[in-house]
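G., before I forget:
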Amino acid sequence: MTSKARLRSGLLGLAIAVFAPLTGHAQMAHQHGSDAACEGTELRCATKVTPFFAQDGKLWLAWMAGGRVSVASSTDAGKTYSASVPVSEQPLNLDWGPDARPKLVVDGKGGIAVAFSIFRDQAFNGQVLTTRSDDGGKSFAPPRPLTANNESQRFEALALDQDGTVFVAWLDKRNRAPAKAAGRSYDGAGLFFASSRDGGATYAEATLAQDNTCECCRLGVAFAGPGRPVVMFRNIFDGGVRDHAVITFSDLATPGELHRVSTDDWQIKACPHQGPSLTVAPGGTYHVAWFTSGKVRKGLFYAHSRDGGRTFSEPLAIGQADRNPTRPYLLATPEATTLVWKEFDGERTTVMVMQSRDDGETWSKPRAVASTDNASDHPLLVAHGGKVFLSWMTKADGYRLQAIGDES
Amino acid sequence: MKRAVLGLVIGGMVACAASSAAAPPALKPFERGSWREVLRAHAGRPTLIHFWGVTCGPCKIELPQLGKFMAEHPDIDVVTVSADLVPNLNAATQSMLDKAGLAAAENFIFNDGYVERLRFEVDPSWQGDIPRTMLVTRDGAISTIEGSAEISDLDKWSSEQGRPQ
C-alpha cells in the first residue's frame, strides 16, 4: 500500500524576508527546551494535569511532573490542595507524547483508580500501568501492568460505570509481530479494552475491539448508559485514511459495530498526535469533536449523533481557521453542552469556549476564556453541582480551575 | 541590514565549524528563529528538510530511506529536525540518525517547550503531525509532503532541480 503524498506549495521569499533573530546561535549550550516550569514533582511543575470530580464534590487531580505521576485533592474547587502523593516510589520514564496524560477516576466509596503510560524501552515501546488507593489518596498500591502482554501499549482512557466498574480502553501493538511473522503488513495498533470490578485493583483479560487503528492519538470514552461504554478513535480506513469512528458496546464485554463519524479523507502515513473528544448527553446524544487535515475538510469539527452513534450530523467547523483551532474537549451536562479548544495566533495560546442549550443544534458565539504565552496542556472540562469548569495547566501561569459561565 | 549581514556571517561560521570537525556535528537546537536561519543558510541550494520524531512509527521506517537518498544525492542539502516535544532525548535522536545514515546531515532537535510557536514559524497550518518533509528549490519555492514521503517522488524532485546556472 502506498501513501499518496500531498504536495503543497509555499513561497520561501515570504519566510526569509524578515531578519532572523540571533538568539538561536547565542544559546548553543545544551539546555533543552522544556514544557515544564520546573523540575520538581509539585503541581506547578506539571506538564499534564487531569481532573476528576468525585460524587462528594471533592476535586481530584492526577498530574505528570518530575518523572512522577502525583495525586492530590481539593475540597474548595481548586483554591487549596491536599499534600500531593506520588503513585510510584521511583521516577519513571513517563510517556510525554502530546496526547498522553495520567488518568484517574474516583468511585462512590472513595476508591481511586489511576492509569498512565511509560516508555518501557529504548525503542519507545509503551506500557500502561495502573494503581489504586483505598485510603483516600494517602497511599497507592505499587503500579502494575494493565495487561500481561508486553508488546506496546499507550493512550489508555478510563471511564467509571454507574455501578463503580472501571472500564479502560487503550491502543496496543500486540498484533504487529504475529502479522509480520506471517508475512503480512500491519498498520497502526489494536483498540483493546478491559474492565475492573474491584475499582481498578485488577483488570479482566484484554480484548480486541478493533484492529489497525491509528496508533498515536488519544481516545474518547464515555458511557451511553449503564454498562454501555462508547469509544471514539482515529481509525485507519482502506487506503490508509485516518478518519474517526465510534464503537458502542452492548455490555462491558461486547463491542458493537464500527460506525464512521465523518468522511474527511485524511490519507496520511503519519502520527497526527491529535485524538478526538466524546461526551454523551443525559438524553443519549453523542457529541463529538475532532481534528482532521483531510481532502474533504481541514481543521477542527463538531458533530452529534441522535441514533446511538450510527449516523452523525454534518460536521460543523469550529474556531478561526487562521488560528490553528485544535485540542477540542466536550462535556455534556443536564444544562448545556460545552466545547473548549485552543487557538494560537503566532504568540499566544487562547482557550475558546462555546455552549449549546439545545443538545448541539445551535451554539453560542465562541468566547476567549483563558490565554497564555508559553507551553500549555490541552484544555479539559469537568462539572459538579451544575457548574462547568475549565481545567488547564500552563507553564507560565500554573494550573487553573476556572468556572465557565452561562455562554448563551 | 547590519543585523541581517551579521546573521549570515554567524550562520556561515557555524556551518564551517560543523563541516571541518572530525566527529559528526552534534544536534543543533531548533529554537525561535531557527527556521528562518535554515532557509537563509541554504538559500540558492535545493534542500530537503525532514521533520520527524523518535516515537513516531512511520518515521522509523522512513529515516533509513532518507539516509540512502542523501548518500545518492550529494547535490541536495539534507536537514533533519526532531520535532517531538522531547525532554532530554538527544542520545536517542542522535542514535537513530546515526543508524539511518544521516549523521552527516545538518541535524536539529526542537529546543523550546513552546512547540506551537516553533511549528507556527515553520508553517502556521502545521499541527505537529510527523513525519513531514519540506522541499525547497533553488529559487525558494517550498513543497510540503505530509506523512511519509515516497522516495520515488523525492528522486523525481531531485532530478528536476538541475545544476546551478
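DSSP finds three helices and 28 strands in chain A. The longest helix of chain A spans residues 176-181.

More on Monday.
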